[in-house]
User: What shape does this take?
Amino acid sequence: MAERLPPLTSLRTFVVAARKGSFNEAAEDLGVTPAAVSRAIRSLEAYLDCKLFHRLFREVTLTTEGAFYFRELDSVFDKIAIATQNLSATKAKKPLSVCCYPSLMTRWLVPRWSSNHRVNSGSELKLVTTLTHNIDFIGNNIDVAILTDSPNVKGCTSEWLFSSDLIPVCSPNFLPPGTAVTDTDDWASALLHSDTRPNDWARWAAANRGVKINPSIGQRFESSNLLYEATIAGLGIAIGIRDTLQRELLSGLLIEAFPPSKPANCPFYLIRPPETENHAFFPEFRSWIIREVEKTVQVAK
Assistant: This one.
């Protein structure tokens, strides 16, 4: 069974009196009367059953037992003060503001972060979305962004995270059975586009040089999330990022339109200004997302 501790107030009074060598000066530091200091010391001595001070006319000095006790306790209250200050600083830390496209946020980042946060995370995130690659990090108080394709952002560090596939997808019954990627007369007028990724069809066509399509025609949507919903509803064929469509592909809501075709490459980067490196929550977030990417790669293998 653990020993019961002496009153914390008496211990604090003892340490201050020992440092000052005076009950009067200790009283001034603690904002109490000298009599209150004397009572606290006598109470502690009674608790410990030993004398801690030699009481002289204008000063006090430590006994052998008092000197030993002071050596043991002297740094304890400094540690408590530092721990309290650090706790207050931790509570005051602003969340790490993480920005990415809505589809990546809702379909990749949030499910993984939610699972991690429930178990072992002490970090706090503020999650925001963007429909453009042009992030005003300072003006919008963004600490880090996860963006695709173009890593070059002036004044920022860009770190490659992973690459995914750009693939044509459609609802299971949209294309007649046996439709080939080269049968462009049967499907090239049904292209669907996201305004956030206007060049994806052109990139996929370039990766499949035998496919002749006009990548500028077709219906357009504000975001990839809207694009995917329209595709599930059977409105046409979309270019999708494989890693953001795992649920739909596994459940059969969407299928690869032309499995033999070659996917186009879609790299993702972790982009941040220099100030983010000093953010209290950034190191943990960076380590976590790299682990998630590694798990994703292992599953794919």
Remarks:
- The chain has two domains: 8-89, 93-301.
